[in-house]
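Journal club side-thread
Mid-discussion, someone asked how the predicted structure for our own chain would compare to the paper's figures. Pasting it here so we can look after the session.
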Amino acid sequence: MADDDEKLSKSTILGMVAMAVAVFVVANDFTALSVALPAIEKTFGTSVNTSQWVINGYAMVFGVAIVTGGRLADIFGRRRIFFIGSTIFAGFSVLGGFAPNIWMLLACRFLMGIGGAMMWPAILGMTFSLMPRNKAGLAGGLIMGSAGFGNAFGPLLGGVLTDTVGWQWVFFLNLPIALAGVLITYLVVPRDEDRKDHEGIDYLGMAVLTIGLFAMLLALDLGTRMGWDSPIIIGLFAMSGVALAKFFFVERRAGDSALVPDDVMGNLSFTAACLTVLMMSAIFFAALLYLPQFMSKVLKFSAIESGAGLLPMMGTFALTSFISGRLYAKLGSKVSVTGGALFLAAGMFLLSRISPTTTYDDLILGMVVLGIGVGLFYSSITTAGITALDPSRSSLAGAIVYMFQIAGGSIGLGANTAIVLSASNMAEGIHIAFLADAILAVCGAVISLLFVGGTLDTKKIKAAWHHSHRAHA
């Protein structure tokens, strides 16, 4: 255990600070604009059907492009791709703040999604390369803790800026934060090694995967509004199915230059981690959408109150993520991931008791339990997925895990929305949807117990038990 207690160097600590700042700015951008949409609609005289693409368009482009961003980071250097992605992200964020109309704003948001998709896997790769292998759990905890803090702080920051200096400052603020992350990274993160023998770029694989993912995510987003039997939705799903099937054939012929190489696709532990992320993200995104909806439409909370109302969940998520690295190191990946999944299940079971007479106080325990599950699960599954593969694949691995998170969120929102809309009232619909989510979380826990993280590390569990027993005595 001596290695686990080894002190990190000053440059490593500064590098981790830079990664945390970079993660914060990307994660914050997912949620900060959620409370600013009414002000954006008023500024440009548009409706929610259009303004929602300020959030949906960014998330969709991010999810579609992230695998390509991860592969480029592994081929051309994570530091280099991070700088390019940060420049795109911050530059179009400033342009978005000056946008004269909604269409210019949406275009900037889509391009910000490309920048974020380059930044995120590069950040993951640099983080896990900076941290010693035996402290990989700490790296995962730092990343997901910073992401949780950014997600939790986003609605509050967005609400304050919108009500004081204007929603445009949600965009402008990204510039100094991104610059700080870039500057620290430039000073403390080692230069990328020149790789003259790097694999070729799988342009066909990138194109086919982009088409397949974009068609699927667009169909899932539009399906609840247009109807799942709409010819457009059916056509998008068909296009997605054909493109994704074609992708597997393209990858088989691409060899070492494949976007997703054989050693990644054939790794059972990594595949199980991705499947578990897909299932759990369906649950987490449903809670992120329908808890504020319940607070707003049933409890009559304002936008800022609804954002603050999520703090028991998002704050616990952030805090648990920061301490989960120590738990991961002591208990191993299987226990950490499975434990997180079971907390997610317990949280959704508690929240599924929602009824028209439920008060905010009745939601707090369920949100806290769910937040513990999210913090423990996401940091642990990210670390387990990345460390299941060779270190040279870390950016790609992190990108694929996050792609499944975005896809799972979209699938979950579509399924939960269909359940909620079919019920007689919102409270009943959320009750049924959350109960189904809890059952899905139990299934995810079983998969993680059987397949994620190799065999159960009983030595670590016994050591942690004896350590805890001595401390208690």
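Post-session note: The chain has two domains: 10-191, 261-466.
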